[in-house]
Amino acid sequence: MSVLTRNEAQTRAQLLDVHRYTVDLDLTTGEATFDSTTAIRFTARTAGDTFVEIKPETLRSLSLDGQPLDPERLDGNRYPLDRLTAGPHELTVAATMRYSRTGEGMHRFTDPADGETYVYTQLFMEDVQRVFAAFDQPDLKSVFDLTVTTPTGWTVLGNGVSTQAADGRWHIAPTPPISTYLVAVAAGPWHSVTTQHAGLPFGIHCRRSLAPHLDADADEILDITRACYDRYHEKFDEPYPFDSYDQAFVPEFNAGAMENPGLVTFRDEFVYRSAVTDTERQTRAMVVAHEMAHMWFGDLVTLTWWDDIWLNESFAEYMGYQTLTEATRFTDTWTDFGVARKGWGYDADQRPSTHPVAPDPDAVPDTASALLNFDGISYAKGASALRQLVAWLGEKDFLAGINTHFSRHKFANATLADFIDNLATATDRDVHTWADAWLRTTGVDTLTAHVETSGHSWNLTVDRAGDRPHRVTVGTYDHSLDTHTGTDQLTLRDRFDIDIPQDGTPVTQPGHRPDLVVLNDHDLTYAKIRLDPGSWDTALTHLSGIPDPLTRALVWNTARDMVRDGELHPTVHLTAARTHLPYETDLALVQGVLGFAATQIADRYLPPQDRPTALATLTSLCRDLLRRTEGLTAKDWEQAPGTTTPGSPDPGLRLIAVRHFIDAATQPDAIQDWLREGTVPGGPELDAELRWRILTRLAVLGATDETAIAHELDKDPSATGQEGAARCRAALPTAEAKVAAWQAMFTDDTLSNYLFTATAQGFWQPGQSELLHPYVARYYPDAIALAARRGPAIAEAAGRHAFPAHAVDPDSIRLGEQALTDPALTPALRRKLTDQLDDLRRALAVRDAH
Ligand SMILES: [Zn+2]
Question: Which of 562, 758, 803, 844 could make an S-S bridge to 727, C-beta 3.0–4.6 Å?
Answer without folding.
Answer: 758
